[in-house]
Design a protein that fits this description.
Aminopeptidase, eight-stranded mixed β-sheet, ten-stranded antiparallel β-sheet, Pnp Oxidase, Chain A, alpha+beta
Length: 403
């Protein structure tokens, strides 16, 4: 389905970049989290940023009932121009004149009307909330009558609109191609950061706030007889600080003992940043009987191409040592790696001085492959050696049969 060009939606230059495909306009509007609304209020031009949501061919704009623009939209409606732009890349040319950007944009003209029907207003507000994550509206409190009265929604029909976009690379003049200047495209992406729960939140981070990625970067819940592993998040900081902020737990670890909750929060935040970068998949360990946090462990360096992953960053409360919790955690991770991910190799690294850890890894059936000398910097500034262990998929078949 296409839109009908009008004088206001027909550009005077770069016409080859313009499209009137309604589906393209929908996609750009749906991807954007905010828009800008231009209008004239009391004889003065205004451009305001606001939230928007689309239901069918109607674009809804969020606002306050006390705002002048919302009051002006009563009756015959308020003439507006709504714009959304996604900046996809910087295009660096050899000459100033041909520097550009790759982008996708939508411009919508029309009269925005104040939504007065209760059902339509409710659907629009629900769409605003669900835009941050599918299912968020059901996962949060609905507005009270007072909040509904304080919130205004404008509706604008997507009838007079156009899409404009630039894609591709550098378009230098031929005579400039021999110039010794770097030219090319720098892609730009909007990526979510690490979710940071409010004080007192104990619920896990919802799935809709976690980016979609390879199954190798998933942290599914893995449950055994003694321990349950699930995705680590910032709500676990207090429990981890109580469980593992122990000099003996950190004795051979290449990171300093956290002496405050904030220091533990910093270590958890670092783990989540590594997860976001695809370097690590952190789990929290809980006692299946009490639900108490007893430690943390991780997959490290997951490599889907080589089908290998490392188990590391393990910290377990000292009162859980020699209780079977650590061994069961490792078996849960091994089963997930070999039987779900299809790994062919799982590795461990442990300090050469940590004989207790080495014996535990060997009891799992892993093979000692060698020593990595001066492998990692320790908290005191010295360099330590690590023992490298590995378990292959063929070994796992035998280990799993004996378990």
């Amino acid at each position: 389905m296409t839109l009908t060009p009008t004088e206001r939606t027909t550009p005077h230059r770069k016409r080859e970049r313009v499209s009137y495909e309604l589906a393209a306009a929908h996609a750009i509007l749906d991807e954007a989290l905010h828009c800008h609304v231009g209008m004239v209020v009391d004889g003065e031009p205004r451009v305001l940023p606001t939230l928007h949501a689309r239901l069918g061919d109607t674009l809804y704009l969020h606002g306050s009932t006390g705002a002048g623009a919302m009051l002006a939209a009563r009756g015959e409606g308020l003439p507006v121009c709504v714009t959304v732009t996604h900046l996809d890349a910087l295009v660096l040319a050899r000459s100033w004149a041909h520097h550009s950007v790759n982008y996708r944009s939508v411009v919508v003209h029309g009269r925005a009307h104040l939504v007065t029907g209760a059902d339509e207003k409710w659907r629009a507000l629900e769409a605003f909330v669900d835009k941050v994550g599918h299912g968020r509206a059901a996962d949060s409190r609905a507005p009270s009558l007072k909040e509904l009265a304080e919130t205004a929604v404008l509706a604008l029909t997507l009838r007079e609109a156009s899409v404009k976009a630039r894609v591709g690379g550098v378009k230098d003049d031929e005579e400039d191609l021999a110039l010794p200047h770097w030219a090319g495209v720098l892609p730009l992406r909007v990526t979510p950061g690490v979710a940071e729960p409010d004080a007192g939140v104990t619920a896990p981070v919802p799935a809709y706030l976690s980016p979609q990625r390879s199954v190798w970067l998933d942290a599914p819940t893995l449950r055994g007889e003694h321990v349950e592993l699930s995705a680590l998040d910032m709500s676990h900081v207090d429990g981890l600080f109580a469980a593992v902020a122990d000099p003996e737990v950190y004795r051979y670890l290449p990171r300093p003992l956290p002496t405050t909750r904030d220091e533990m929060a910093g270590q958890v935040a670092q783990a989540l940043r590594q997860w976001q970068r695809g370097e690590r998949v952190p789990f929290v360990q809980r006692c299946t009987r009490t639900g108490e946090i007893v430690g943390t462990t991780s997959f490290y360096r997951p490599d889907e191409t080589l089908r290998s992953v490392e188990i590391g960053f393990t910290m377990l409360a000292r009162d859980r040592w020699r209780t079977g919790v650590n061994a069961e955690s490792k078996r849960l991770l091994l089963r997930h790696a070999f039987e779900t991910l299809g790994a062919v190799r799982v590795t461990w690294q442990t300090d050469t001085r940590n004989e207790r850890s080495q014996r535990a890894i060997e009891r799992l059936g892993a093979t000692r492959e060698g020593v990595l000398r001066r492998h990692r910097e320790l908290p005191d500034g010295t360099w330590g050696d690590s023992v490298l262990y590995a378990l292959t998929d063929e070994q796992w078949k035998m280990v799993a049969c004996l378990a």
